[in-house]
Inverse folding.
């Protein structure tokens, strides 16, 4: 199919270049209600995305237009020609600054390792199911339902500048709900895990943790009205919080003037009393579904440091936006590594705090820094005792908290994130009951 | 102009029927959904232009088979007569081999009966004013670029003004022994996003436009872009709300968000199967103020989630979810209805042919009432008019709500004070919020420019909306 598309592209008049991405996916999926299988699914699909580039000059300046279209494997040659022709026509009117295509690299990129490659997907599903339900052994709590997917993905990128690279990876996805009932009404919590290797202990420990958190939630009291109480974020919300720094350092957002971050400046300001952010992008984290040797343009990826003690070291992004800024291309890397902070969690918890472990949907607006979320489970320590709390919400803006935030010394991995387990903030608004 | 169905799907219909016939020789129920969706998305902003395929583009098939215990499905996107036997082998690997492997591992199965279908053959082709192909990419880009230029001429606070357009042409066929259905329709959506800055403070606002429309939607964008920019600029002076419970008036988009997040997800009946829905305890009981009536259905209104049949071949319905404050019914996909012994409501939807079908919302609305908006504002001693939905999250089990909103306009003694709060997070307990509704305005507005997820995946197209609602809510 790729050769057929290439032939059509090479015959298409006026193109300055092209790129083809082929993605082949085969997956097996299980859907459980309680411990009983409600449905099984299989999938085998092949997708082609073709991008065409057209160059033109206007007002003495060089521009490069592009347009991307999907080519389905069932398309006949005439249909492919029409789709690419339409994309080519559209690209004529896309007036973007010129940028070069990625060229072939001499770098020898490593393959992605996964234990899933040693057996068939069908063979792994019972093993994954067993790991999932190993912790489901309580009278008052249970796994309500779960969805378990295992996909094998093969990707090939080809462009007119000579890039022709391919790699294979696995994506495991587990979404599950846990319930717990004490004397009041039954409660539930939601969790989604992504993984690229067979890690049964991880699945079991995560379900165990969610069951324990559900038990806490069943015993929780309404979040009290709290003024000036430090907030400790623990779990998924920490990653979402740090997303602000990723967006602010992205070449695309700097080019679009959404971000005003400057290399050599401290993004947290000049009066930081807490911990400083040190953030790296690493394309080769074991166990991450986002690990990849090349980005979507076929650029070979390497680990890169973005922030060092709060100071922006470099912008990151694909060839196009890095070229616009005159920056060295890093490629688009979707794994984040953030250094732990000065103090362990135990030290961060010495004074009264509100620790938040689960939200309905903790949201960080990475463009402007506002963050907020409805509390599903927290722990309030008043200096003497700790009680589980639920309900109410928190909100704030990162610019008002980043000068005095503390990152836990303990770091953890959650798929494509390795970084502080907890984050302590002051100056956060808490809407209690 | 009538929308034409995909020629590819029509051409493949005989082969799909042959596949269904062959599989039916061995299995009690077999159906195939075929999809062919095309479309383009356009984006014009200060720094450039993008024209790409819409993210909803797909072409493929999903076969559902009763495996003797429950149902198995297989998604594929290659179909040729010469490889039909090979395809059947791959389907049977899922239906037979995988099922046996799981049984051997002592995994227990939920049992489902064989679907009994009435014989039906029907079709639906949408009508729009301007087909996407009638207006060239050049013409669309020029109109969008002109609007961007007008916006920059209007306000020097803008650092960007994004104009986005997406046109999506959906074609689907559903084939089983008793059903032969086909439909094709077009929906379009557009968004205007002004991004403003003063000193180091950045804010943005967005307004969506959507419907069962074609390129004619572009004419709507030119009307009122100044007001959208003014709203973004007003956010630069916004204050943070002091956390507490307030009297509020929810604008139709916020009412839609409440209908969708606070309640719609809670009556999706696959949640009943999993014992995840608190709504089960309230069926036939008061759940809201008597002023509240709520509907969901592909046949409720004509909007982006209106169709003839859902992704399981069930014909569209109009479900009265709440009638004068009483919870009447949930919304259901086919398999959940089969499990629960209820009637499917035409709400079985898939993100694409590659994904499972779930009970999903379509067009979800609060019905209009009889109050006038000006009377509602005049009745407020102290509170806020809430506008601009950003996002929300469901909690069907425990009925908590989370709605992220962009603007709260302060009202004191029945008049706007000019003070703006932003952002606003509205939280609370669903029955408290719905029972507090004391006034319902007489208009109905619908919004369909977003997408709805189940948890954090399975995104489908929906619309929601309603009238202005006066209620009490906790703001933070």
């Amino acid at each position: 199919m790729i050769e057929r598309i290439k032939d059509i592209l090479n015959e298409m008049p006026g193109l300055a270049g092209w790129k083809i991405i082929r993605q082949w996916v085969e997956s097996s999926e299980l859907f459980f209600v309680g411990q009983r299988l409600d449905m099984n699914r299989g999938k085998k699909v092949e997708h082609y995305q073709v991008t065409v580039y057209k160059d033109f000059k206007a007002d003495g300046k060089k521009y490069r237009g592009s347009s991307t279209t999907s080519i389905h494997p069932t398309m006949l040659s005439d249909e492919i020609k029409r789709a690419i022709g339409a994309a080519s026509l559209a690209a004529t009117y896309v007036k973007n600054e010129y940028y070069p295509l990625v060229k072939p690299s001499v770098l020898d990129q490593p393959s992605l390792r996964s234990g899933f490659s040693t057996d068939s997907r069908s063979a792994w599903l019972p093993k994954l199911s067993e790991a999932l339900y190993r912790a489901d052994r309580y009278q008052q709590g249970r796994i309500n339902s779960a969805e378990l997917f295992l996909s094998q993905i093969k990707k090939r990128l080809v462009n007119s500048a000579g890039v022709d690279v391919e790699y294979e990876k696995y994506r495991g996805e587990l979404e599950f709900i846990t319930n717990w009932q004490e004397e009041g009404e039954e409660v539930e919590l939601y969790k989604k895990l992504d993984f690229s290797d067979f890690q049964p202990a991880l699945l079991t420990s995560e379900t165990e943790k969610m069951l324990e958190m559900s038990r806490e939630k069943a015993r929780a009291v309404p979040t009290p009205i709290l003024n000036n109480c430090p907030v400790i974020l623990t779990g998924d919300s920490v990653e979402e919080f740090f997303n602000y720094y990723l967006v602010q350092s992205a070449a695309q957002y700097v080019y679009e003037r959404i971000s005003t971050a400057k290399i050599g400046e401290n993004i947290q300001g000049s009066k930081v009393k807490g911990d400083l952010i040190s953030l790296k992008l690493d394309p080769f984290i074991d166990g991450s579904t986002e690990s990849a040797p090349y980005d979507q343009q076929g650029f070979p990826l390497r680990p890169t440091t973005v922030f060092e003690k709060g100071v922006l070291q470099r912008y990151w992004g694909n060839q196009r936006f890095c070229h616009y800024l005159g920056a060295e291309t890093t490629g688009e890397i979707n794994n984040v590594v953030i250094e732990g902070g000065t103090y362990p969690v135990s030290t961060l918890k010495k004074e009264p705090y509100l620790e938040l472990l689960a939200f309905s949907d903790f949201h960080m607006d990475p463009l402007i820094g506002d963050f907020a979320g409805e509390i599903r489970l927290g722990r309030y320590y008043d200096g003497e005792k700790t009680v589980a709390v639920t309900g109410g919400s928190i909100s704030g803006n990162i610019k008002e908290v980043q000068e005095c935030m503390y990152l836990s010394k303990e770091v953890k991995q959650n798929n494509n994130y390795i970084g502080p387990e907890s984050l302590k903030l002051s100056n956060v608004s808490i809407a209690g009951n | 102009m009538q929308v034409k169905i995909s020629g590819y799907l029509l051409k493949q219909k005989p082969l799909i029927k042959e596949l269904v016939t062959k599989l039916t020789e061995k299995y009690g129920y077999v159906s195939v959904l075929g999809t062919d969706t095309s479309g383009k998305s356009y984006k014009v902003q200060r720094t450039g232009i993008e024209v790409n395929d819409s993210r909803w583009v797909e072409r493929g098939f999903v076969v559902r088979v009763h495996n003797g215990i429950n149902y198995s499905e297989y998604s594929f996107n290659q179909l040729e007569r010469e490889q039909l036997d090979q395809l059947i082998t791959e389907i049977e690997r899922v239906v037979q081999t995988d099922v046996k492997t799981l049984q051997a591992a002592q995994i227990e199965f939920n049992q489902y009966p064989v679907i009994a279908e009435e014989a039906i053959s029907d079709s639906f082709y949408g009508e729009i004013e301007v087909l996407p192909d009638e207006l060239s990419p050049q013409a669309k880009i020029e109109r969008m670029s002109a609007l961007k230029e007008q916006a920059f001429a209007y306000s020097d606070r803008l650092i960007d003004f994004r104009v986005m357009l997406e046109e999506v042409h959906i074609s689907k066929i559903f084939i089983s022994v008793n059903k032969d259905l086909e439909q094709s329709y077009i929906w379009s959506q557009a968004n205007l996003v002004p991004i403003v800055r003063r000193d180091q403070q950045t804010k943005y606002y967005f307004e969506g436009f959507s419907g069962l429309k074609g390129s004619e939607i572009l004419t709507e964008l030119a009307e009122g872009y100044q007001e959208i920019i003014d709203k973004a600029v007003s956010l630069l002076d916004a204050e943070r709300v002091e956390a507490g419970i307030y009297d509020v008036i929810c604008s139709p988009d916020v009412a839609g968000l409440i209908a969708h997040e606070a309640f719609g997800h809670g009556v999706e009946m696959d949640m009943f199967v999993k014992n995840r829905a608190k709504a089960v305890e309230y069926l036939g009981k008061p759940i809201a103020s008597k002023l509240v009536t709520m509907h969901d259905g592909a046949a409720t209104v004509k909007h982006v989630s209106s169709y003839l049949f859902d992704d399981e071949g069930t014909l569209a319905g109009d479900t009265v979810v709440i009638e004068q404050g009483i919870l009447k019914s949930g919304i259901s996909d086919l398999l959940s209805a089969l499990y629960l012994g209820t009637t499917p409501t035409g709400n079985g939807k898939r993100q694409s042919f590659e994904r499972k079908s779930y009970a999903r919302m379509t067009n979800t609305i609060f019905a209009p009432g009889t109050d006038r908006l000006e009377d509602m504002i005049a009745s407020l001693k102290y509170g806020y008019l809430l506008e601009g939905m950003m996002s929300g999250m469901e909690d069907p089990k425990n009925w908590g709500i989370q709605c992220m909103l962009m603007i709260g306009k302060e009202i004191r003694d029945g008049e706007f004070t000019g003070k703006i709060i932003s952002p606003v997070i509205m939280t609370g307990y669903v029955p408290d919020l719905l029972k507090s509704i004391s006034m319902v305005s007489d208009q109905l507005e619908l919004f369909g420019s977003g997408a709805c997820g189940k948890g954090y995946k399975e995104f489908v197209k929906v619309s929601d909306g309603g009238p202005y609602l006066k209620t009490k809510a906790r703001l933070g």
Summary: The mean pLDDT of chain A is 96.
